[in-house]
Design goal:
The protein contains 2 helices and 6 strands. By secondary structure, the protein is an alpha+beta fold. The protein folds into 2 domains: about 5-35; about 45-150, Jelly Rolls, CATH 2.60.120. Strands 1, 2, 3, 4, 5 and 6 form a 6-stranded antiparallel beta sheet that branches. This is Lipoprotein.
Length: about 150
């Protein structure tokens, strides 16, 4: 079923069958938005490394070894209006670049991606996610090296 039909059908079903409250309708809407947002993440079988999700798609661990990779991978994130675990996350990332270039980025809404780190090093920061889409990823060009990322 097309994603564009999911929300109207959910709302119609809720209203027609049992007269949902405003909060229930908003809850269904948030679930539909989250479902749509999870489709933006790079699929596990397409990732270079291993992703273990945490309590939701925004959190978890990712470890990968890259060999001459020119790629962009969206590792964690989503589009929740109200994230059950709250808006605050802590990101810890260690990036080792032995050849080429690599950067870890944060894409929020329709803004340009924010580069959190570029090149070898370690990055640790607590961030407050704004409403809407928030994705964390890795971009490499001829990248040989390793990344270890944890978001809690």
């Amino acid at each position: 079923m097309k994603k564009s039909l999911v929300l109207p059908l959910m709302i119609f079903g809720c209203l027609a069958l049992n007269g949902c409250s405003k909060d229930q309708i908003l809850g269904h809407y948030n679930q539909a938005i989250q479902l749509a947002g999870s489709t933006e993440l790079t699929k596990n079988y397409q990732l270079t490394g291993q992703r273990e999700t945490g309590i939701d798609d925004y959190t978890g661990t990712y470890t990968a070894n890259y060999e001459d990779a020119s790629t962009t991978e969206y590792i964690f994130g989503g589009t929740a209006i109200e994230r059950a675990a709250g808006k605050d996350i802590t990101i810890t990332c260690t990036l080792t670049v032995t050849d080429g270039t690599a950067k870890v980025f944060w894409l929020s809404g329709s803004n340009e991606p924010i580069v959190l780190m570029e090149g070898s090093g370690t990055y640790i920061e607590e961030l407050t996610l704004p409403d809407g889409g928030n994705y964390f990823g890795i971009e490499g060009e001829g990248f040989t090296g390793r990344v270890e990322m944890r978001i809690e």
